[in-house]
Amino acid sequence: MNKFVEETVMQRLERVAAALRKNRMEAHVVRTAAEVAPLVKSLVPKGASVAAGGSESLAESGVAELLACGDYNFIDRNKYDDKRRAYIDAYGADYFFCSSNAVTERGELYNVDGNSNRISMIAYGPENVIMVVGANKVVKDLAEAESRVKTCAAPPNAKRLSCATYCREAGVCMGLGGEMTDGCASEGRICCSYLVCGPQRHKDRIKVILVGESLGF
Ligand code: SF4
C-alpha cells in the first residue's frame, strides 16, 4: 500500500485489535453494529450470569436487549431497590458488559466513572468483561483519551444522567486543558475515578469488540 494512502477505519481497528491482543486482551473487529449481538451470542454460553453497566453502545448494538432475552441469568440492576446489592451481585457475574470511554492505538483502555461500580468491575470481579466499542472511541494515546472524555463523553453523559454539572450546560469540561482530574466541584460530578488498563495478568478476561461504526459517546 502506498504509504500516503490514508488508512481506512477498518484498517485502524485491526491495528488497535492487534495492540489489544499484545496486551493480553481478546479483540474482535466487526464492520457494523448489527454484527455485535450475533458475536456476543457465540461468546457467551446460555445460562451464564450476565450484568451490564449503563451504556448507550450496548443499547444501540442490541446487546442490552439480548442480555434480557431470557437465555441468560441477567442480573438486572433496574430490578433492585437496593443498588448496592445489585452491584455486589454483578461483581460475581460470569460476564460483565460495558463500553470503554476510549481505546488507544497502543491497546490501552481508558475509563472514568462517577459511581465507579463500572471501573471496579472492569478491573476485577466478573470472570469476563465484554466491551462494545464504536470506532468513534478509538484515540491515538492517553492524552487524547483524556481530552475525549472531557469533550465527547462526560458532557452528554451528564445530560443523559441529569447531573447538575458545568459540562451539562457548557458541553465541555471546565477542566479541559488542565490536569487529568481537573474539572468541576459539583456534587453530581461524574468524573471521580480514573482507570487505565494496560497489559493484563489474566489473559483474555477482557474481550473488546471494535465496531466500524459510531456507537454511544
Ligand atoms: S469534571 Fe465535572 S465538568 Fe468536567 S466533565 Fe466531569 S462532570 Fe463535567
| Percent range of helical residues | 25-40%
Derived structural class = alpha/beta
Shape: globular
User: Beta-strand percentage?
Assistant: 15-25%
Q: Low-confidence segments, ≥5 residues, pLDDT <50? A: none
In CATH's first tier, which class of the domain at 9-140 and 195-211 applies? Alpha Beta
What is the number of helices? 8
Q: First CA to last CA: what distance?
A: 32 Å
Major β-sheet profile: 6 strands, parallel
Give the spatial strand order of the biggest sheet: 1-10-7-4-2-3
The total beta strand count reads 10
Q: Can you walk through the features of this model?
A:
The chain is an alpha/beta fold and 217 residues long. The chain has a domain at 9-140 and 195-211: NagB/RpiA/CoA transferase-like (Rossmann fold, 3-Layer(aba) Sandwich). It contains eight helices and ten strands. The strands form two sheets. The protein has a six-stranded parallel β-sheet, covered by helices on one side. It has a four-stranded mixed β-sheet with strand order 8-5-6-9, sandwiched between helices. A hairpin with a 4-residue loop joins strand 5 and strand 6. The radius of gyration is 17 Å and the shape is globular. The structure holds iron/sulfur cluster.
